[in-house]
Design a protein that fits this description.
By secondary structure, the protein is of the alpha+beta class. Helices cover 38% and strands 13% of the residues.
Length: 367
């Protein structure tokens, strides 16, 4: 039924005493309508030029085809079906997540379904994926065929929990990040994507840290060795320690942290000549205290260990259907004993690198 039909019927029946009664001074007022919308499917629209053509445009018949009764493969040409299936069968989780309606669990379900059952052979088979029904699949298919490029907002919204402050939209479009934490004798990193999947998680010993006279060349060798192992990512997030300059007893440690931080920035930030103003920095800082507050680890101005939180995340990755963080099996086996109480394996930097990555994504969604 058309959404305006009953209203007009009641108006016409009331005639001279109704809402559209002719006034003494003029004629029947014109009813200006841009279109009528069908209440069966809420998609079909009929343009109406004026009140005179209204009755001819209306129909009391309900829509016989809202699209859901037609096979999905019949709605697209062979070329379109091939393009859709090509992406669904070969796209990475990050590529699938960039499509409308596929961010989050749906993209993971597609990857799991094709791994278990083989590639999709028809569009109709896509609705077998959990959380993907007919209408959702149509939106996904149309988004693949007609990708919409997001226009950058004129008003810049800054993500204030990282430095330097950059437009939030750049961060929201990132497919993955590498979180880096420097210790007194090692550097740890965690590579995490938008679906909170841990892609890489390890640490590297740095034998020249805090040794002798802080030789710049020795420091550079250690930091360069770490940088050569880091995976490519949209952003690199380096922990900013909260050591106060007034604490003279910890001045050697603060100088060490600042030296390593400066070298990481210099080695990771791509050199673009001349610099382009519309490209954001690729290397960012995140305050250690911001991560501590997010996980409730702050006691006064000091931050306690987050090992218990990491242990819980690793357990939920195995026991929960939708865990907070997803770990590959090999990483669970490798680090299962690193974060136990009293462990001397030195997993503090590993723990902090992972928590920083998780806090980044969660704060980005919350703020």
């Amino acid at each position: 039924m058309w959404v305006i039909e009953r209203f007009l019927s009641s108006v016409i029946q009331r005639g001279q005493s109704g809402l559209l009664r002719r006034s003494l001074r003029g004629s029947l007022p014109e009813l200006e309508l841009r279109y009528l919308q069908c209440t069966c499917c809420w998609r079909s629209r009929i343009p109406v030029a004026g009140f005179e053509t209204l009755n001819a445009s209306l129909s009391s018949e309900p829509c016989k085809d809202d699209g859901s009764s037609r096979p999905l493969d019949a709605c697209y040409t062979s070329e379109q079906r091939a393009a859709i299936l090509q992406l669904l069968n070969n796209g990475s989780p990050a590529e699938l997540a960039s499509i409308k309606l596929l961010r989050g669990r749906k993209s993971i379900n597609i990857v799991e379904h094709r791994s278990k059952n083989g590639p999709f052979k028809s569009l109709e088979s896509v609705v077998d994926v959990p959380l993907l029904k007919h209408k959702s699949a149509v939106v996904v298919f149309n988004s693949i065929l007609n990708p919409v490029k997001k226009e950058r907002k004129v008003r810049i919204q800054l993500a204030r929990f990282i430095k330097p402050e950059v437009d939030r939209s750049w961060l929201e479009e990132a497919s993955s990040l590498v979180s880096i934490v420097c210790g007194t004798n090692k550097i740890a990193w965690a590579h995490v994507d938008r679906q909170m999947m841990v892609l890489d998680w390890q640490q590297q010993e740095c034998p020249n840290f805090l040794k002798g006279t802080y030789m710049a060349s020795a420091y550079l060798n250690d930091v360069s060795a770490v940088v050569s192992l880091l995976p490519p990512a949209s952003f690199y997030l380096i922990e900013k320690s909260s050591i106060s300059v007034q604490n003279t007893a910890l001045f050697p440690v603060m100088a060490h942290m600042r030296t390593v931080e400066a070298m990481l920035f210099a080695l990771l930030e791509p050199r673009i000549t001349p610099p382009e103003p519309n490209i954001p920095p690729r290397v960012l800082n995140m305050m250690r205290t911001a991560v501590g507050r997010h996980f409730g680890l702050m006691v006064g101005e000091s931050r306690t260990s987050g090992a218990q939180i990491v242990r819980q995340m690793m357990t939920e990755s195995v026991t929960e259907k939708l865990p907070r963080v997803n770990f590959p099996q090999e990483l669970l086996v490798k680090y299962r004993n690193y974060f136990q109480m009293g462990s001397r394996r030195g997993g503090d930097e590993l723990c902090d690198a992972l928590l920083q990555a998780v806090a980044f994504y969660e704060l980005l969604c919350e703020s």
